[in-house]
Amino acid sequence: MKMWKGALATILAAALIGGCSSNAGSGTGSGGNAQGSEGGAKSVNLKVFIAQPRLKEHYDKFIADFAAKEKAEKNIDVSIQLEMPPADNAAQILKTRLASNDAPDVFAIHAINEIPSYYKAGYLEDLSDQPFVGKLLDSVKPSVTTTDGKVVAVPLETLSWGYLYDKKIFADLGLTPPTTLTEMKTTVEKLKANNITPFLLSYKEAWIPQLFLPLAVGAKMNTEEGEKDFIDRMNADQGSFAEMKSMFEIIDLVNANGTEKALEVGGDDGAAAFAEGKAAMWIQGPWYAETILKSNPELDFGVAALPINDNPDATMINLSASTSLAVSKTSKNKEVALDFINYVLDDNDSNAFFQALKFNPIATVHTFESYPWVNDATEYVKAGKSYQDPAIPQSVKDEVGKALQSYYAGQMSQDDVLAALDKAWKSFNKVNN
């Protein structure tokens, strides 16, 4: 989910959150390069990098609560420099920072897409012995575990996704989520006959159109015998996205039956439009739940699996862990950084934090109930209609996002898009193999 555009200085939205000035606690924690401060307390400036600016108010509260806890329990005055660049730019910014020895102490990465390459590059601290690890659900822990068995991040978001749909619109017209591409075409026609726009299009941010790729690749790999090893073959320079050309059937159907000015509408604007009922469906994940419900708390929306062809078995839910927090191996504030990532799964405060973000339960300390849209996706999972998010390199996802923007604008053909993806994967292999 990320990309190019403009000078870094104009992108970084840095918010300095001061630690609380609680008088409690008299311990003397060591903060790496911490400086002494009034009353014998240590002071630490922790740099945290998370590309979710739409959730800033919740992270601000979390940070303030953490700072109060560090002061009370360890007598460390923590101030946190929080960087929240847009998702489109975040990966490139972070890679630049890491490569120039200017790593944030704690940074968010995508568990499936980015942990392998970041770990191989030596950027990630081994967190295997941290208290949070024992709290992770068995279904979640593998997503933040390396091939050699080390846990290197604390997960925040686990995802069960396909597309979002307006349950009221569907119920009013007697519709149910379609199970094949032909059924989707019928659903589209019924919506149009009732003057309802079928799809919300929001392609201003390239990471949004790239969502088609993991949905199509994941479904085909899990239902078509010849595609089961697609990722392995691409990693060995022995495959081609020409095998995935049929994904344009659903892409074309969505693009031809969507809202206008797609390239001018970003994620937040899309969430507001979906909340207002401007379209019945949005190729998007429930990670936008908090933003949607902020615009319209009464909206009843669900999660369904996206049909990519006429095989109903291929209409599956994508299961993934995405945003996860890692600690820089070079952090000079490692003790406080480790305290911070453990606080994510704090026995007392984690429930409120995850509920505010509208994230799924991921740990044994989470006792809050799952959200209705999570239950929708779980029905597919129980029926055996789900797959693990395919491990497509982030650079390839970046490329497909830009390419599908150009395809929508009529500037690239289907074959152009597929060739660009092949080239991007080969470039990735040259650097990483």
Automatic annotation (TrEMBL):
Keywords of this entry: Signal, Transport
Signal peptide boundaries: 1-24
Subcellular location(s) per record: Cell envelope
Domain of life: Bacteria
Classification via InterPro entries: Bact_solute-bd_prot1, SBP
UniProt similarity note: Belongs to the bacterial solute-binding protein 1 family.
Family annotation (PANTHER family): ARABINOSE-BINDING PROTEIN-RELATED, BINDING PROTEIN COMPONENT OF ABC SUGAR TRANSPORTER-RELATED
Function recorded in the entry: Part of a binding-protein-dependent transport system for a sugar.
Name listed for the protein in its UniProt record: Probable sugar-binding periplasmic protein
The species this protein was found in: Paenibacillus thailandensis
